[in-house]
């Protein structure tokens, strides 16, 4: 039989962007958790643990931590948006775009609130 | 005004893959895309294939992808589209039969899975099966679906796995599950609860964007999800 010819793709809108970012931030969090467990598993060996912690105190990781904070905040605020759609079904779905921008706005505020002590710590 | 159309062509007898062909049509801003496609077929290139029937946005035959958005060609006016070249493609994800005509077999297969007809084994009443205006209001929006397949073909969950029931079948499931005259809600909820059912919806909202009848599809699917987690099957 001849192979079916078809194409996929669709114009982006806030809903798609929210979904793609949610997926990517979810994957990033899984990656972080694996790393985190790997770091913790070094606890059985104090010298090894100190070595790993010394490595993780490099400025690069401080910067990545700030990124991790951003990823967590987005995943959480958009997650709340999805939960709102699930529980306020019709109304929730109707205002999904507004809720996306709301989630982004609240996310930015929370991100800055958390990032200030982060950066303060870095400068010290 | 002159409008240029970039239309995706594909003839399985001669072509190995789809290609684009441009046509220029003399038209006006209130014309529908379907009028222009008719113009092209009647006066420029009679080999162009597309489905159309009523021309009044109620049969759902002329659903296609215009400027990256699904919709009915008869309902989409030139003035509603971004000025410039109009790109017309067949509905995404369905196998192309020729040009803008796609094979909707999978779509109807999913539709049939949710038994899309009234099931009521109770005694047949003398008059109609009564329903109050309030009861009708619940299913009113979902009854306006015309099965044009715009939503299902726009759904990334359906692209990833065409075993997924898809938004159109789920809206129809909603229509019967919440119909007070119907008695087979439980059987339908079981179909919808399948691994290829309602929980494959990841609230991407492409279906809401696509629906030419402005049905709040994701809202209806969310309602089914809520019904599944709050009722015992």
What tags apply to this protein structure?
A: mainly alpha; B: 233 residues; alpha+beta; Ubiquitin-like (UB roll); Fumarate Reductase Iron-sulfur Protein, Chain B, domain 2; five-stranded mixed beta sheet
Number of strands of chain B: 7
**What general outline of chain B do the C-alpha atoms trace?**
elongated
| Cα gyration radius of chain B (Å) | 20 Å
As a percent range, the share of strand residues of chain B is 5-15%
CATH-scheme architecture of chain A: Up-down Bundle
Q: Which quaternary structure do these chains form?
A: heterodimer
The CATH superfamily of the largest domain in chain B is known as Alpha-helical ferredoxin
Give the H and E element order of chain A.
HHHHH
Report on the structure:
The complex is a heterodimer of chains A (124) and B (233). By secondary structure, chain A is mainly alpha-helical. Chain A has helices at residues 14-41, 46-56, 59-87, 89-94, 96-123. Chain B is built from nine helices and seven strands; from the N terminus they run E-E-H-E-E-E-E-E-H-H-H-H-H-H-H-H. Chain B has helices at residues 33-44, 105-113, 133-143, 150-154, 156-160, 167-177, 185-192, 206-210, 217-230; strands spanning 2-9, 19-26, 63-66, 69-72, 86-89, 96-98, 101-102. In chain B, the strands form two sheets. A five-stranded mixed β-sheet of chain B has the order 2-1-5-3-4. A two-stranded antiparallel sheet of chain B has the order 6-7. The longest helix of chain B is centred in the C-terminal third of the chain and has 14 residues, at 217-230. Chain A binds chain B through residues 2, 4-11, 13-16, 19, 82, 85-87, 89-94, 96, and chain B through 10, 12, 17-18, 65, 67-70, 89, 92-96, 102-103, 154, 156, 159, 202-206, 208-210, 216-220, 222-223, 225-226.
């Amino acid at each position: 039989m001849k192979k079916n010819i078809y194409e996929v793709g669709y114009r982006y809108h806030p809903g798609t962007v929210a979904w793609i970012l949610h997926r990517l931030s979810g994957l990033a969090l899984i990656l972080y958790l694996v790393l985190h467990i790997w770091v913790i598993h070094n606890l059985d060996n104090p010298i090894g643990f100190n070595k790993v912690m010394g490595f993780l105190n490099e400025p690069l990781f401080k910067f990545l931590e700030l990124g991790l904070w951003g990823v967590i905040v987005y995943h959480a605020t958009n997650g709340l948006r999805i939960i709102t759609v699930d529980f306020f079904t019709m109304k929730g779905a109707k205002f999904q775009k507004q809720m996306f921008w709301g989630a982004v706005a609240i996310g930015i505020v929370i991100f800055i609130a958390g990032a200030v002590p982060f950066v303060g710590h870095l400068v010290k | 005004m002159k409008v240029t159309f970039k239309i995706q062509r594909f003839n399985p007898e001669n072509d190995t893959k789809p290609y684009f062909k441009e046509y220029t049509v003399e038209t006006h801003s209130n014309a529908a895309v379907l009028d222009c496609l008719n113009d092209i077929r009647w006066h420029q290139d009679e080999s162009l294939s597309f489905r159309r029937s009523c021309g009044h946005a109620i049969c759902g035959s002329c659903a296609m992808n215009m400027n990256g958005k699904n919709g009915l060609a008869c309902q989409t006016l030139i003035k509603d589209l971004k000025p410039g070249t109009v790109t017309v493609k067949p509905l995404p994800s369905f196998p192309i039969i020729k040009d803008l005509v796609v094979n909707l077999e999978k779509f109807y297969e999913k539709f049939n899975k949710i038994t899309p007809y009234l099931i009521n084994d109770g005694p047949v009443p003398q008059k109609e099966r009564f329903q109050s205006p309030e009861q009708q209001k619940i299913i009113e929006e979902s009854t306006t679906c015309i099965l044009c397949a715009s939503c299902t073909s726009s759904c990334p969950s359906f692209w990833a796995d065409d075993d997924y029931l898809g938004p159109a079948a789920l809206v129809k499931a909603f229509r019967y599950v919440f119909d007070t005259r119907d008695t087979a809600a439980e059987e339908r909820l079981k179909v919808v609860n399948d691994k290829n059912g309602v929980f494959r919806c990841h609230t991407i909202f492409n279906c809401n964007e696509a629906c030419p009848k402005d049905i709040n599809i994701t809202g209806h699917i969310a309602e089914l999800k809520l019904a599944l987690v709050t009722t015992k099957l």
